[in-house]
Write a structure and sequence with these properties.
The chain is an alpha+beta fold. It has five helices and 20 strands. The strands form four sheets. Strands 11, 12, 13, 14, 16, 17 and 20 form a seven-stranded antiparallel sheet that branches. A six-stranded antiparallel sheet has the order 3-4-5-8-6-7. A hairpin with a 6-residue loop joins strand 6 and strand 7.
Length: 308
């Protein structure tokens, strides 16, 4: 599923041509388009972001950077679609079939199993109503804000450049580094953004990105919260072997730990997020954001973390 961002027809010299999109319409279209299986700005006249002014160019750059960072999640979700037939872009009712509100909620959708997108489609709007089905939901842009559904948020901030975006509680979202094009650099570090709802589960699918029938691998992630939080990174299965890399775990909505251990051995705390990027093993707690950061090498072997 994809679309021509900005519309295919527009000001190509033909009498019947529609006018080109306004900067606002183009921006809002882009905010939707990056959360489709196929993202492209394409039409009969200029559709490059820089054609619509510096503000629009910067916003589209930010969204393209986010899409490239989300590629591990998108690629995994696309593989799951090929195995199950469940589409990458899906209506709310597909996941919440016992919720009558989702039967008629056609202005929101899920991108993969864990991201809820609520596009802005009203001219001049700076906020919109968002319906959240059953479960815990995190505001993607401000993860300290959580909501328990089913609930309707009557006025979610949505200035130009900010599409309402929520993460389903219990999700593990794999993300990569910023890139300008696919394969520009290895998937290093590999970030696991964990949004717990007592538990969390996730999957990473990988292959060489080229061979139609090439080797691939999968890795499962499981988190359980109790008096002690336990994160299991399962052994990588399959024949594909990625390059050496580092895991960076970002665990949201977490109280400050008193101790962190990996496979039974205590792991040292570091003084800053910057220092965490220089060590093989370590952890850092950001009290203002209530986020726990972990760092460790990805060896492909199973490993278990415990947080008290």
């Amino acid at each position: 599923m994809g679309q021509d961002i900005g519309g295919w027809d527009g000001d190509d010299g033909e009498e019947a041509a529609a006018p080109p999109p306004s900067p606002e319409l183009y921006t809002r279209w882009f905010e939707i388009g990056v959360f489709n299986a196929l993202t492209r700005a394409h039409g009969t006249s200029a559709r490059e972001p820089y054609q619509f002014g510096q503000e629009v160019e910067q916003i589209t750059k930010d969204y393209l950077r986010l899409r490239y960072r989300l590629l591990p999640y998108i690629y995994t979700s696309a593989w799951q679609a090929s195995q199950t037939g469940v589409p990458l872009v899906r209506p709310l009712v597909l996941e919440f079939q016992n919720d009558p509100t989702t039967y008629v909620r056609d202005d929101e959708f899920l991108f993969g199993p864990s991201l809820l997108v609520a596009p802005v489609t009203t001219l001049g709007a700076s906020s919109r109503e968002v319906y959240l089905p059953e479960g815990l939901w995190y505001d993607f842009w401000e993860p300290t804000q959580t909501f328990r559904g089913p609930t309707t948020l009557t006025e979610v901030a949505a200035p130009l450049g900010r599409v309402p975006l929520f993460v389903r509680g219990g999700a593990v979202i794999p993300m990569g580094p910023e890139m300008n094009y696919v394969g520009e650099q290895p998937l290093d570090p590999l970030e696991l953004h964990i949004y717990p709802d007592q538990t969390a589960r996730g999957l990473l699918y990988e292959d060489d990105g080229v061979s139609p029938e090439g080797s691939y691998s999968t890795t499962n992630y499981n988190l359980i919260q109790g008096e002690t939080l336990r994160l299991d990174v399962d052994r990588r299965t399959g024949l594909f072997r990625p390059q050496e890399r580092t895991y960076r775990v970002i665990l949201y909505d977490r109280d400050e730990p008193t101790a962190v251990a990996r496979d039974g051995s205590r792991v040292a705390e570091v003084a800053s997020h910057l220092e965490l990027q220089t060590v093989s093993y370590g952890w850092f707690y950001d009290a203002s954001a209530r986020v726990l950061h972990l760092a460790f090498p990805d060896t492909g072997a199973a490993t278990q973390w415990e947080v008290r």
